[in-house]
Hints:
This protein is mostly beta strands.
Amino acid sequence: VSPTLSLAEGSTFRFDQSDSSNSGHPLRFSTTANGTHGGGSEYTTGVTTSGTAGQAGAYVQITVANSAPTLYYYCTNHSGMGGTANTP
């Protein structure tokens, strides 16, 4: 079971993807559950990506916009590998 995240509006969160276990699992956000696998599109507002998942220095960073919708994090390569990120 994937954890539900709470990402406060106006805050910045950096997800370190440098560990080798992240290889082949790029993290992205969407307003649709399961992201592009669920028929949605990638959410890019305030999102910065750097490097390649599984390699040194790789990360995904999001600065959550005020009035941001509920977001869902997902792996671009694998359906069902993600969860909910509430934006209270």
